[in-house]
């Protein structure tokens, strides 16, 4: 508990998490408002459409998570941390927990803010959350962001430089996985198992939250069920974190 | 007591610290002296468990750093003043450190007061001058009221007022019975603050002794002689095996005590205009001792043979 408090003080006593949180909210809220306000009979406002922009917010949260650890390396506070807490595994696990919790909170606010804005803009559209798929599509954004943040932080520990780590995380998240589909033949089969594609499956399911409308979020090609998809991505995040912590323990700080 | 045994650190094929063994005694200021690049910082990082030694161990009070429970309460350290997040306030920086070792939040205000940063406690540390950062670092080191304090080049880059403050501060810490281990590449600085010296060069131990011994050994070697009768005095000096170096207006004599030179002058009826032990030039002497172990020579003729220590320190 002490270590969690330490990491909370560290994270919230700098400005970047606040700016990142604000950016994530403005980006997703603004984008959702634009999309939903332009909806019509052909492109109806659905629960799925309210979360159209969640991945933008998630990208910003991943930047936050990466920075939370790379700035420690940049400014040498990681050494002060290891000096105060020689058990590096405990210190970094506490950091991951705090970052995941913060990402969870931002993710939930982001998702429900977008959904709330949509219901204000289109009061007569059917945006009620009345199925599991609807709920996961909105409330699932929080856990998805939390796990994505852990992945980003693990990359931050491994790379240590802000620019390098952020580029790696964003390029992979926004472009690299989709480029794999361009490989003839096996591309699509590999893509099915790539982590962020699978995570997207958890959030969007088979598109039930779009009420059958084609207009909504593009769907994941993963063949896992939403809960298995979440478990798969969680395992990916934990393994990556474990590797990064093991590396940090061996390395000179 | 700090004890290093056969401490070795290798980076690639370069030995930064080479089979280094020494002890730091309790309740004193011990200077850790060596030219730049001698491995002082690496050794101190290994003491704090930040770098893993390639071989050997270093213990503090018989325990490795990683075995200490709430280490900030046993060992306070300032290795680098800039190890602070620039957007975090001085108070927040100390607050998380205090929290991590279950130190009372009240202690944060106490140490801020000790180092004189109370007024800027809520300002972002990125706006601090080097001197202020150094004070913040010292506040962090004092946070757990530790028995042992490590400082790496604490006066580097400070203005004279800051240097004086640090110097007095170290003495105060030792007076309180704490063990202070402080590194520097300036012998003149260490001669003022440390009672014991551990001297290293190229990662190897050169000597471990009291400061007095080291300074005596380092400086009693040359005597300056001016005389109108050098033609008579010089052969006499040669006969007793002295090393004689002519200078502009006299001789620099090594290997013979001043008294002996005086007696020789008397015997040879030579008038002496000057007979002066070259005391001040600590830096010069330090370089004689560590000379071969400086990592990167600049091949500059040092012009400081006659400069007092203070000057030598500034030019360094």
Biggest sheet details of chain A: none
What oligomerization state is this entry in? heterodimer
Radius of gyration of chain A, in angstroms, nearest whole number: 19 Å
Number of domains of chain A: 1
Provide the descriptors you would attach to this structure in a database record:
heterodimer, A: 253 residues, mainly alpha, 12 helices, B: alpha/beta, Rossmann fold, 2 domains, six-stranded mixed β-sheet, elongated, transport (chain B), ABC_transporter-like_CS (chain B), ATP binding (chain B)
Descriptive overview:
The complex is a heterodimer of chains A (253) and B (316). Chain A is mainly α and 253 residues long. Chain A has 12 helices and no strands. Chain A has one domain. Chain A is globular and about 60 Å long. Helices cover 35% and strands 25% of the residues of chain B. In chain B, helix 3 packs across helix 4. Chain A: This is ABC-2 type transport system permease protein. Chain A: It comes from Prauserella isguenensis.
């Amino acid at each position: 508990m002490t270590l969690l408090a330490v990491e909370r003080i560290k994270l919230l006593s700098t400005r970047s998490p606040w700016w990142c949180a604000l950016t994530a909210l403005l980006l997703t809220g603004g984008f959702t408002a634009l999309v939903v306000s332009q909806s019509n009979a052909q492109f109806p406002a659905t629960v799925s459409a309210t979360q159209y922009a969640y991945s933008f917010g998630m990208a910003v949260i991943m930047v936050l998570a990466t920075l939370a650890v790379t700035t420690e390396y940049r400014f040498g506070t990681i050494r002060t941390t290891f000096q105060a807490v020689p058990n590096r595994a405990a210190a970094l696990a506490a950091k991951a927990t705090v970052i995941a919790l913060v990402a969870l909170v931002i993710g939930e606010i982001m998702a429900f803010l977008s959904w709330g804005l949509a219901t204000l803009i289109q009061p007569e559209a059917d945006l009620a959350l009345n199925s599991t798929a609807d709920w996961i599509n909105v409330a699932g954004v929080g856990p998805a962001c939390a796990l994505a943040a852990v992945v980003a932080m693990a990359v931050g520990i491994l790379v240590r430089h802000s620019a390098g780590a952020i580029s790696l995380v964003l390029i992979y998240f926004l472009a690299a996985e989709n480029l794999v589909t361009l490989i003839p033949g096996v591309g699509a089969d590999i893509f099915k198992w790539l982590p962020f594609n699978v995570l997207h499956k958890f959030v969007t399911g088979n598109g039930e939250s779009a009420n059958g409308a084609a207009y909504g979020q593009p769907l994941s090609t993963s063949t896992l069920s939403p809960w298995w998809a979440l478990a798969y991505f969680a395992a990916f995040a934990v393994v990556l974190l474990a590797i990064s912590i093991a590396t940090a323990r061996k390395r000179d700080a | 007591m700090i004890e290093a045994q056969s401490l070795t650190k290798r980076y690639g094929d370069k030995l930064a610290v080479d089979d280094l063994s020494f002890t730091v005694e309790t309740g004193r200021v011990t200077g850790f002296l060596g030219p730049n690049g001698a491995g002082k910082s690496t050794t101190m990082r290994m003491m704090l468990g930040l770098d893993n030694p390639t071989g050997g161990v270093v213990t503090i009070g018989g325990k490795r750093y990683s075995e200490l429970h709430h280490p900030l309460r046993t060992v306070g350290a300032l290795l680098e003043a800039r190890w602070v997040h620039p957007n975090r306030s001085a108070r927040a920086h100390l607050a998380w450190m205090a929290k991590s070792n279950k130190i009372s939040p009240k202690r944060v205000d106490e140490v801020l007061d000790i180092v004189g940063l109370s007024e800027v406690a809520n300002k972002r540390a990125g706006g601090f001058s080097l001197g202020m950062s150094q004070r913040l670092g010292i506040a962090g080191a004092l946070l757990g009221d530790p028995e042992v304090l490590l400082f790496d080049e604490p006066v580097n880059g400070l203005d004279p007022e800051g240097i004086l403050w640090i110097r007095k501060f170290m003495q105060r810490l030792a007076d309180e019975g704490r063990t202070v281990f402080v590194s520097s590449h300036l012998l003149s600085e260490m001669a003022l603050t440390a009672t014991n010296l551990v001297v290293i060069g190229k990662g190897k131990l050169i000597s471990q002794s009291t400061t007095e011994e080291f300074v005596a050994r380092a400086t009693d070697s040359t005597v300056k002689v001016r005389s109108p009768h050098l033609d008579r005095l010089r052969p006499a000096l040669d006969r007793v095996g002295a090393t004689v170096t002519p200078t502009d207006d006299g001789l620099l004599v090594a290997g013979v005590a001043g008294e002996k030179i005086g007696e020789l002058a008397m015997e040879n009826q030579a008038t002496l205009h000057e007979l002066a032990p070259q005391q001040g030039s600590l830096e010069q002497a330090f370089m004689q001792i560590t000379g071969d172990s400086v990592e990167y020579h600049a091949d500059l003729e040092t012009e400081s043979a006659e400069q007092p220590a203070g000057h030598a320190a500034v030019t360094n």
